[in-house]
From TrEMBL:
One of its GO terms (molecular function) is metal ion binding. Its EC number is 1.14.18.1. It catalyses: L-tyrosine + O2 = L-dopaquinone + H2O; 2 L-dopa + O2 = 2 L-dopaquinone + 2 H2O. It comes from the Eukaryota. This is tyrosinase. InterPro entries: ConA-like_dom_sf, Di-copper_centre_dom_sf, Galectin_CRD, Tyrosinase/Hemocyanin, Tyrosinase_C, Tyrosinase_Cu-bd. Pfam families: Gal-bind_lectin, Tyrosinase, Tyrosinase_C.
Amino acid sequence: MPESSEYEYYQIQARFPAKDSNPDDGINRKVFVRQDIDEWSSKKSNKKQVDLFILALDNFQKLDPKERLSYFQVAGIHGQPFVRWDDPSPEPMKNGYCFHSHVIFPIWHRPYVLLFEQVLYDIMVKEVIPQFLEAHQASWRQQAESWRLPFWDWARNGRVPDLAKYPTITVPRPQGGSVRINNPLFQFRMPTDKPMRSEGVGTENTWENDAEQEEYKNFGNAIGTSRWPDEEDQKPTSEGWRHGVVNNRKVADAFNAHEGYNDKNHGPAAEMVYRLLTVPMDYTTFASTNPTSKDQNVDEDLNIEYIHNNIHGWTGAAGHMGNVPVASFDPLFFLHHCNIDRLFAIWQALNPEKWMDNIPVGNATIRDSFGKEHIVNGNTPLQPFRRDAEGNYWTPEGIRFTPNLGYSYPELPRWETKYHQQDGTLNQVLFKENITTIINRLYGVSRDLALDPKAPTPEGVEAIDGGLKIPDFAFSVRFLKYALGGRPFWVKLYLAQEDGIQTPLTDLIAEVYNFSQKPELDGSSVCGNCTKGQKSRVKSTAYIPITPVLYKLIRGGRKLKSLTRDEVLAYIQKRAYWRNEKELPRYEVEKLELEIIGSSNDTKHFTNPATPPAFENFKKEPTITGGADGALDPELKQPKIDPPAPRPRRPRANLPLHGSLQFQQTLKADSVILIESSSVDPVKPDDGVDMTQISIMDAKNDIIFHISIRRAQDQIIFNSKLGGSWGEEERIDIARRFDSEDGATILIHDQGEGFEVSIDWVHAIWFAKRAQGTAPQSIQYDLWNKEGTSALSEDLEVRTYPSMKALFLQKHAHEEEK
């Protein structure tokens, strides 16, 4: 790690209560608690803390994106803009910081959330509280000292937190009274009012084919974050996408679309969390979607990361939270990860002896941002999180126990004397019983259904001492994580209500989100772990318990009469089907190497809430196991069709203002360069200096064709610059050109001896070539006055075609597809 004697690192350090927190108590020392955001914010006694939180977050988001401790830069650690954070090294990034599909996943995010919490605390005490009257500052500071970042328990409430629902929120004025401000939990907006591309977010593109381009979302165009944007608002050039669209109602709809997982006491992810915290497993299974072995058991498909992934998909969809490189810009990201950290801490308390042992071969090493390889163990550096002034990084061992970091969670009050034995040590049995009682109450969907005294017990359920033994059923889902190039996608599971009839809206019982990203951007690796996973064909795993669904089917009279193994397997075999969210054709699904593995086990639930459930005899069920065909019953399977012949590659790219692009194909006579702008600004500049310039360059960097749009002169100028000298200008009036402010198309057709230019598909000029025998090599987009504004959009979409005929064939084919 390069060092700088003058550089001052930002130290992430624990904060402890000033009283009653004895360091000698170790992990049993008293610390302040992170609370459920809805419960915390609804209590009048917490009003000052809530106000401090909102005011500090508002200040945080308004900091200049170039500042190290700005919201933009802290959020950017997770993905884009893929630059170093808190590191003086000039060496470019060789790998991103964040880890997914790896045993480091929950470990790395712990200091990340702690950093976010600490920056907010610093803003509270240094910026917010000093604005209040001096006589009141002591009480505000007391609230700040005990404040910890709240968590969003989406497993209990399948919706956004109450504090994040609305675009504005009321906060106190420091000198008295109150005021409504933009809600910083509703959305993050760039404080500069410039697109995120201005600070490096968004690909500079890549010459992609049509299919890839359909999925391409240019987050660089966004000024504000989006949640569940409509199809129209997903277009990178739309105003909705630019300013951000927040559809919190659709978030709730996505969470609650699953048969059997929702009731008044539980959210849609409750049963998944219940299994995570009660099924025995090692840390390496718990931590990641990455399989521990090629032939692992079905119960080893259960992990915290797939649950985490689903929350990202349900919350963001095509918006920010649903996409790895930009997910952390959504303010809900840190509340979500605070809950992931909480589940991790609860699991650790129930399994204190389990840690980073028996690391799978594929996870045995990681590469840091400098490309250096590290063995994965308790001393692996967690970049970029510094723990001291010398710049040493936090390590897995250093962040293993949350009390050592100055916080805990409501379920884990280790300092309470009722959990202590006479010698002062923690009574593990009593402590775990309390945790189990809470887990059973909050998340035990299948337990509540099985032990419901008001409902009849279905056939197949057996009474045992202190409880019931029930047949339990699940689907494991396995697929190649990077089969679609790292693109996010859903795998959806259904149970048909009628034999052979698909009604997806009502048949949906579960889904699994592939939360991933492209391993490379513009030819460079941005995620070394992703690149490694893609090359090794790593799979993602998930485990979906479906017994709650079966209970509701039985009690709803849906033709399932019992929980006996034979009847359940026959029912599922006849009715189960699965699809990719976009109904990919079967030949595309086959690329995923998708496995849907049905399984069963014997589960014991006990009436004593302090007794954990017991899961035994896990086994695969071949009769309810399938793959790319999409179903078990022939009537529900996807038809097998041949893939279409590959379409000719149509290069296209995003050309940012002040940027240039190399053409990837040799452009000869009859070739076409198509330039599209998403907007047109006809307003003349005040200073009279105005040149929006598009230049076509050859291999010598001579400008063989130049377009200059000059609004101040009401003209468009065409020229060339050969050997350093400009030629004679050719001009046309700008009047009747670029009539629509919604966008413009400039077509440059190489006709051998000259270029024909059309604007919005209308002939504008024929320009004779002044350098014969030279071919276009690159295109440049710039302003003569760097401080000015462009007549066109900040990004131009560039496409090239080998001929005019190819352009119209492609255009016609694309319109037919629509």
